[in-house]
Amino acid sequence: MTTSVEVPESMRCSVLRTAGELEVQERPVPRPGHREVLVRIAAVGTCGSDVHYFRHGRIGGFVVRDPLVLGHEPAGRIVAVGTGVDAARIGQRVSLEPGVPCRRCRYCHTGAYNLCPDMAFFATPPVDGAFAEYVAIADDFAHPVPDHVSDDAAALLEPLSVALWAHRRAGTGPGSRVLVAGAGPIGLLVARAAAVQGATEVLVSDPDAGRRALAGSFAATAVLDPAADDAAGAGVDVFVDCSGVAPAVLGGLAAVRPGGTAVLVGMGADEMTLPVSALQSREITLTGTFRYANTWPAAVALAPSVDLDRLVTGHVDLDHVGDALDPDPAQVKVMVRP
Fold first, then answer.
1. Which of 60, 105, 147, 272 could crosslink 246 through cysteines, CB 3.0-4.6 Å?
2. Is the omega angle on the peptide bond into residue 30 within 30 degrees of 0, that is, cis?
3. How far apart are CA 324 and CA 248, in angstroms?
4. Environment class of residue 3 by beta-carbon count within 10 Å: exposed (0-12), middle (13-18) or buried (19+)?
């Protein structure tokens, strides 16, 4: 390990011991291996998956069987490097892409590394995440960020990448008409990313009036209340569901023009009934997303236009991570500052 700053032997981290039970522990500071860097964490976003693990101890087949450090939206500063990494990177501010693939499978070799079956993804059992003072990661998954991008915004390049990947799957571009269901953090970023990439119309649907208001001021050209506004026949080019709720998915599919695309991002019901006949007769492309691949350069470039800092509604330290994982509904994005 090469270092130009003093790195302690131990660090504090927030550990999920079991569903609903967090504990701040002292653990050894990781040492960067070959082609790895050690990052002092400055900010970590809290995500719906963190909340789900905290409340239920599992997401589908991913089960918390041993103590786990949550948090997969991190940014910080490189304080040490392993062998094979230029020591000039020490001191560099970085946003961490939190999933390192095997680099050897067919998916990695074709660029679809988000589908790598041996992906080591932060805060997905059994891989620890970033609610900690330090983490080690592959050097090429620590992406440099310019000084005009704040620590919070650098961390939020991760959810922005989710949004950008959804649009790549959808083929969104200049002139597109886009409908987004769900105005949580991901839905807001999907809407904003559509707008900054040239979409001429961005509709956002959400049952909560406060979230509709935020969507209207942040990105949407129009907001819809699903209880009162029927989007069927709207003829949008792209529908992105960020709710995971069956009625929202069905309503969005009804709004897609023939030949359009629907992308499922929100995690909700494992199964739902779909209008197969309508999908076939209107040749609608329906796809899902799983994380992202090769999105960070675009996310860094778009960060100033997206105004990521505006989503931040609170900060907590490691001793109060539980407050962030049981948030007030009015909160949009609570950041952990280790």
1. 272
2. no
3. 27
4. middle
φ/ψ of 318, rounded to 5, equals: -65, -25
Greatest Cα-to-Cα distance within the chain, rounded to the nearest angstrom: 64
Q: Is the pLDDT of residue 164 over 80?
A: yes
> Is residue 309 pLDDT above 70, yes or no?
yes
Joined together, the tokens standing for residue 3 give 């270092």
Crossing angle, helix 185-196 and helix 296-306, to 10 degrees? 90
Record the tokens describing residue 298, joined without a space: 């675009």
pLDDT digits (tens, 9 = 90+) for 259-269: 999 999 998 87
Q: Omega into 126 within 30° of 0, i.e. cis? A: yes
Tokens of 207: 């049952």
- Tell me the DSSP string of 164-194: HHHHHHHT--TT-EEEEE--SHHHHHHHHHH
pTM higher than 0.85: yes
Q: Which residue has the tokens 């062998």?
A: 83
